[in-house]
Amino acid sequence: MIETQKPRVREAVSAVINRSRGGARLSGFVLDMFCTSLADVAGEFAVPSYIFFTSPASALGFVLHIQAAHDGEERFDATEFRGTELAVPSWASPVPRSAFPTNVTKKEWVQFLYRIARDIRGSRGILINTVREFESHAVDSLSSALKVYPVGPILNLKGGDTAAGGAAAEAIEWLDRQPESTVVFLCFGSMGAFPEAQVREIARGLEASGQRFLWSLRRPGQGDENVGEVLPEGFADRTAEVGRVIGWAPQTSILAHRAVGGFVSHCGWNSTLESVWFEVPMATWPMYAEQKLNAFLLVKELEIATEIRMSYSSESGEIVTADEIERGVRQLMEKDRSREARLKRFSEDIKKALMDGGSSSSSIAEFFEDASNGAM
């Protein structure tokens, strides 16, 4: 699909250049990590390509490492790796096999990742949605061989529109009536749907935990429709005073709310950065892509999160039990002063990074200066 867009991109860029004669100059292409093959079009215009990497620097370092090992003399094959852990330069600790991204275990997908990694190495530079202070080890490791620009956090903090009413607006109104930092929020991203058996285990675990909760529940192939049909009988009535189950959720508005004290998350990178921004502790429940790596980063390397099941994969068919969920939710909502202090420090770091003179602000300025030197 990306390949078929090359003629359209070529035409669009040519039109912009023709309209801008004597005005704006073309400095380069910024390409999404899945659109790296469009570097060919940038080459036709004699300008460099930059990659925008939307996942963490540590995940980028992992992909680049396995690609280099595969292309090197050892001909490393990630799909056949049977060790318990792998030493990766961008990680302070060896990465356990259980934290490998789901696509690394599939031969067709890992070849695609290798190609992306080669294209990334051939770019002029890499913009990463992270903050130097948040991932200092990974950023320093990558900077030793590549030009990287940590420009994060790139977030939409306006939240969802709840003014029109509906369940999302009612959820915010319900939060307004709850004590501070007492509600656990469960949300697993736009693709985070569970089979019915797992939904029932989550419900039982939440009820047993005794915690207040707000649960964004999506059904496979059905989205937000009739989510209550898969809940245990009587669950809604028994938890009416302490919980709410909704479909789509205005995540940033909820994380920003004073009543929310914990976040059970799939560890998508945007969700992770949002949670850190608002200083909401996380319990990790990764689903797909690089999310297991993100969970390992949060729990083991940064020590700012707890876990439900860090090695979970949505494709495995495994069921996380109600006991595990109850235990994980209780642990998440327990006070941990050292964890909270680390989370507060990182939250302050990523906010300062965007201020004038901050690390990300300076990195963005450096990128524009570098790009302008290559303009045609």
Automatic annotation (TrEMBL):
Keyword terms of this UniProt record:
Glycosyltransferase, Transferase
Q: Which EC number applies? A: 2.4.1.115
GO terms of molecular function: anthocyanidin 3-O-glucosyltransferase activity
Which residues are in coiled coils?
A: none
Taxonomy, superkingdom? Eukaryota
| Positions of transmembrane segments | none
- Record PANTHER family: GLYCOSYLTRANSFERASE
What protein family is recorded?
Belongs to the UDP-glycosyltransferase family.
Protein known as: anthocyanidin 3-O-glucosyltransferase
What is the scientific name of the source organism? Linum tenue
